[in-house]
Design goal:
Prophage_regulatory_activator, Prophage regulatory protein, AlpA, mainly alpha
């Protein structure tokens, strides 16, 4: 298990910081954990699971 800060999440997902937080507010993106006060980080498994779901949805649309 690895923890990723927002900069790394931006790089992995190609989403901007504001888009990530907008998706979190809409309950469409994993919420960060707070390992210490004022620190937000995401579990690697949560980010990769989200990416897999996005890929699967895209593939389903392509097949329809």
């Amino acid at each position: 298990m690895r923890l990723y800060r927002i900069k790394h999440v931006n790089e992995i997902t190609a989403l901007s910081r504001s888009t990530i937080y907008r998706l979190i507010a809409a309950k469409k993106f994993p919420r960060p954990i707070h390992p210490s006060p004022g620190t937000a980080a995401w579990l690697d498994q949560d980010i990769y699971a989200w990416l897999d779901r996005q890929r699967n949805q895209h593939q389903q649309k392509q097949q329809a």
